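Standup notes, protein team

Yesterday: finished cleaning the Lupinus albus set.
Today: Putative cupredoxin structure.
Blockers: none.

Input for Putative cupredoxin:
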Amino acid sequence: MARNMNNTFVVLFIALATLLHGSSAQTRHVVGDSIGWTIPSGGAATYTTWASNKTFTLGDTLVFNFANGQHDVAKVTKSEFDACNGGNAIFTITTNPAIVSLNETGDQYYICAFTGHCSAGQKLTIKVTQKTSSLAPNTSPSASPSPKTSPSASPSPKISPVAAPSPQHRSDISPSAAVPESAPAPAPFNGPVTYTVGDTIGWTIPTGGASAYVSWASAKNFKVGDILVFNYQINTHNVEEVTKEKYDSCSSVSPIAAYNSAPPVRVTLNKSGPHYFICGYTGHCSAGQKLAINVTGTTTTTATSPSSAATPSGSTTPSSPSPSGEGGVSSPPQNSGAASVGSLGLFAILLSVAAVAFY
């Protein structure tokens, strides 16, 4: 009887080790924890300090919490990170919460592409490493010898490790924030891209004249679904979409669409072909505050939160989103920490089987 019990517990141990090894959970890192993704009062050192206390491994996720229309998340190269340039981002996420799956090792760089935010400290760099196994190589279940039973002893219950219940995802993670291990990372080149017009100079009367915005646009590839962000000083400029004739003559009479509300103004490019934008304030367009772009093709993902993009419609004057203030950020998800996927439930099942074998 004692020998049978020993054999049973050996098998139970192997099954439990196998399940725990295969269900090691990823870690969800809430960037900045309680302060979220914002312009930190302590400058860039705030996010540097936050990242220094974390270990980032393949399969982990970053959760950026911010107020829609006031921030975004742009993954960039190191040179763009150092220069605080979000115009050529690998990808940009404009809606809260922004969830990024860490699917490659090495250094990764993230900034807020809104004018002045990165230079004020809203930037994050992390190092992603390979995941380490929780079991030593020689303790792999496939390498463990099968327990032998004496011919004279009554057969012990057969418990196959593969017959144990599959681990379940935690039920306390909301669907919008949960990122299964098998979920792909955000598609960097297929989704809509957010372009900050003029990058660091914003939407203003450029010192170099109209050529400044011509040069800026020439390096971009605009597609349907992409977003233009116009940053300017309130009550000193506006944004008007016009026809080519009115663009050439700098006429703001009966524009296709006019944006006169508080910046930033976000315009979704919802059709292909040429688009023309000017500032309707007297003399601004003729001084060079005008932009012409060509939109081609379509993006795979064109869904954009209504609160984060203003789409022109006819000759109406859309209202851009009113800043809700940093206090409008929704409560962040759970703090960083690996969630053990169903470990307690599995352990309880195995103990139940052991008890049956014992009696």
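Follow-up from PR in the comments: The chain has a mean pLDDT of 74.
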